[in-house]
Amino acid sequence: MTRSFHRLLRLLGLVLSRCVLPITRYCWSLATDFQVAGDALNDLNNRLRAVIGSGHASARLYHMEDYRHP
After folding, report:
1. How far apart, in Å, are the Cα atoms of 63 and each of 27, 55, 58?
2. pLDDT at 22
3. How would you classify residue 58: left for phi > 0, otherwise alpha for psi between -120 and 50, otherwise beta?
4. Which string of b and e fits 18-31 if b means at least 16 CB within 10 Å?
5. Phi and psi torsions of 55, nearest 5°
6. CB under 8 Å to 45, separation ≥6 — which residues?
7. Mind listing the pLDDT tens digit for each residue in 17-26?
8. Where would you tag: which of 3, 37, 53, 70 has the fewest CB atoms within 10 A of its CB?
9. Is the pLDDT of residue 65 over 70?
10. Calpha distance 23→34 (Å, rounded)
C-alpha cells in the first residue's frame, strides 16, 4: 500500500508541476498584462479629458476644419 501511495503522490506532483503550475503562471501573467494595459488606457483617458477640458483640443479641431478641403 505504501508503494502505490508513493506512486500516486509522485504522479500528483508530476501533474502539478507539468500542467497546473504552468497554466496558473500563464493566467497570472495574462492578468498582469491586462492590468498594465488597463492602467495605461486609464491614464490616457485622464490625459485626454484634461486636454479636452482645457479647450486646447477643441481649438485644434476648429483649426483643422479651416484647412479641410470640400
Report:
1. 47, 12, 9
2. 87
3. alpha
4. eeeeeeeeeeeeee
5. 95, -10
6. none
7. 888 888 888 9
8. 70
9. no
10. 17
CB distance 60 to 54 below 8 Å: no
Q: Which three cell numbers stand for residue 39?
A: 492602467
d(CA 33, CA 37) in angstroms, rounded, equals 6
Place of cell 506512486: 7
What sign results for the dihedral spanned by CA atoms 23, 24, 26, 30?
positive
Give yes or no for residue 40 having a pLDDT over 80: yes
pLDDT grade for 59, boundaries at 50, 70 and 90: low
d(CA 36, CA 55): 29
Tell me the mean pLDDT in the region 31-42.
Answer: 88
